[in-house]
Amino acid sequence: MRQILAKFLLSVFFFLLFVGFSYLVQKKVFTSFDFDTTVKLQDHISRNYDTLLSSLSLLGSVEFVGIFLIIFLVVKRNLGLFFLIPSSFAVFHVLELFGKIFVRHPSPPFLFLRYNINFLFPSSYVQPGYSYPSGHAGRTVFVSVILLYFILSSKKINNDLKLLFAVLIVAFNIAMLISRVYLGEHWTSDVIGGGILGTALALFTVSFIKDRSLRSSSVSGF
């Protein structure tokens, strides 16, 4: 019970952090920081990585992440998770949409754009207004925190594999977050805000996952 309460309170802390950070973004506190970070990343990362980093835009889309979550839930075969995780995923997008409508934070200008794959998922054409917070960053962190929770809590995976999975997941998150800024699709503050919101919703989700959800994971290995 204490662990559940701790995770719930931590999720509340991250949500309040998101609210406070959003207020600072609205007040344009990070304008110079955002611009300088984008310029520095684009100056120091070779254009040879444009296609690789652009592919992360596809991997972080609503469509791709949604399909991944469906597969994950089918493998887990737990009715509680079928309601809990999609509900939290939906709440994240409601809050993301709210931010992009009411937090006046314009996207980076077109001159920064480096996405170079001639394909976009339909969700990419939805432009509700502003760019805060980053949906790609939030979705990636949301899924990663939940995956890490199941992996690290599993009794079917040895510690060496847990460490390997954790390193791979963290590395993927770093690449995703950097790609948002480098490609000129979001400012750094957008990415930070999205990451905080994704963490808050993921912690809220895992705080309601009961032990039996983990015990039923023997089918999938975690």
Tag the structure with descriptive keywords:
single chain; 222 residues; mainly alpha; 9 helices; 0% strand
Commentary on this structure:
α3 (50-59) crosses α7 (159-182), α4 packs antiparallel against α5 and α6 runs parallel beside α8 (188-206). Mean pLDDT is 91; it is low at 212-220. The protein has helices at residues 2-26, 31-44, 50-59, 62-76, 79-102, 135-153, 159-182, 188-206, 211-215. The chain contains nine helices and no strands. With 222 residues, the protein is mainly α. It has one domain (2-214).
Set down the secondary structure blueprint.
Elements: H1 2-26, H2 31-44, H3 50-59, H4 62-76, H5 79-102, H6 135-153, H7 159-182, H8 188-206, H9 211-215
Q: Rg to the nearest angstrom?
A: 18 Å
Per DSSP, the total helix count is 9
Oligomer: single chain
The fraction of residues assigned to DSSP E strands is under 5%
**Structural class label:** mainly alpha
- How can the largest sheet be summarized? none
Q: What count of structural domains?
A: 1
Give the beta-strand count. Answer: 0
Beginning-to-end CA distance, first to last residue: 22 Å
Helix content range: 55-70%
**Could you spell the SSE succession in H and E letters?**
HHHHHHHHH
- What is the averaged pLDDT score? 91
